[in-house]
Write a structure and sequence with these properties.
Mean pLDDT: 81
Distance between the termini: 54 Å
Order of helices and strands: HHEEEHHEHHEEEEEEE
Number of domains: 2
Structural class: alpha+beta
Strand content: 25-35%
Low-confidence stretches: 193-203
CATH class of the largest domain: Alpha Beta
Largest sheet: 6 strands, mixed
Length: 284
């Protein structure tokens, strides 16, 4: 492959597709403003209004004057950026270069999404409403003396219900691999629903508990031995990303084809009440 035969738009499309496939936290959030970002530092203004007051009506009486709705503004800042930059030596057989390049692009996309997902996990943990942080469970396991992993998720569901978070099938909870393993020992989990309960592709939910899609991630926030399970609804936060630039070039001091790409992104918690979290530890 020579630099003249390189199509940046084609590779950019592949990189972004792979990026989306690998996201866990990123795929759980809404992307309502994604098409509006263009470069690092972009600031998107998100408008919202307060709740409308509901009053009791009495027949043959004058109703109150119309209330003035209170609006508020939140800012989504595209303040995160990561890049890759690799080269493939010209000594490599020409027939292998496309294959090697494709694999390198897939690995780059996975790496970028992994960094972004860790950022989102921390953002959601910090952005959860204080009232929605449940008491930590001392241990979770499959022994009769351990707390119930399934119940931990149900408790998160109850907290969101108390906040009138929509129950429209879009709720999510993200757990670490060891917690998933415990769930798989629970017949309430493995016998629920259809074949989606055994789907184990990264970036896809692996089942359902109490109205939540259950996702598995290695980026679940952890402090010591305590892992923070975060549950919520896509309305809780908005995320925007873009592979803003992919460039092919020939390094001046090497006989090689090189590619570099920049991933820009940002997120903000818009409705903290639509998130809930609990810290759990694995039983020993």
């Amino acid at each position: 492959m020579t630099i003249n035969n390189f199509t940046p738009n084609l590779w950019a499309g592949r990189a972004l597709a792979n990026l989306n496939d690998a996201h866990v936290y990123g795929n759980a959030l809404n992307r309502d403003y994604e098409g509006e970002i263009k470069q690092m530092g972009d600031r998107l203004r998100i408008q919202s209004i307060g709740r409308v007051t509901i009053r009791t009506y009495t027949k043959n009486t004058t109703i109150t004057a119309p209330e003035t709705l209170q609006d508020s503004e939140q800012i989504l800042i595209i303040d995160q950026g990561d890049y890759f930059n690799f080269a493939i030596d010209d000594v490599d057989a020409a027939q292998n270069k496309i294959t090697v390049m494709d694999e390198a692009m897939r690995d780059s996309a996975w790496g970028l999404s992994d960094v972004a997902d860790a950022y989102l996990a921390s953002l959601l943990e910090a952005g959860t409403a204080t009232a929605n942080i449940l008491t930590a469970l001392t241990s979770v396991g499959d022994d009769v003396t351990d707390d119930d992993a399934y119940k931990a998720i149900v408790d998160l569901d109850i907290k969101l219900n108390e906040n009138n978070v929509p129950r429209d099938g879009k709720r999510f909870v993200i757990v670490p691999p060891w917690f998933e393993g415990i769930l798989r020992l629970d017949q309430r989990f493995v016998s629920f629903g259809t074949a989606t309960n055994v789907e184990q592709l990264r970036g896809k939910p692996i089942g359902a508990v109490s109205g939540f899609s259950v996702w598995v991630s290695n980026n679940v926030p952890v402090s010591g031995s305590a892992y923070t399970l975060i549950a919520g609804h896509p309305i809780a936060a908005t995320y925007a990303e873009q592979i803003s630039e992919i460039k092919a070039y020939e390094p001046p001091d090497r006989f090689a084809d090189a590619v570099k790409g920049l991933h820009i992104y940002g997120a903000t918690v818009t409705r903290p009440y639509a998130l809930a979290r609990v810290a759990v530890t694995e039983a020993t």
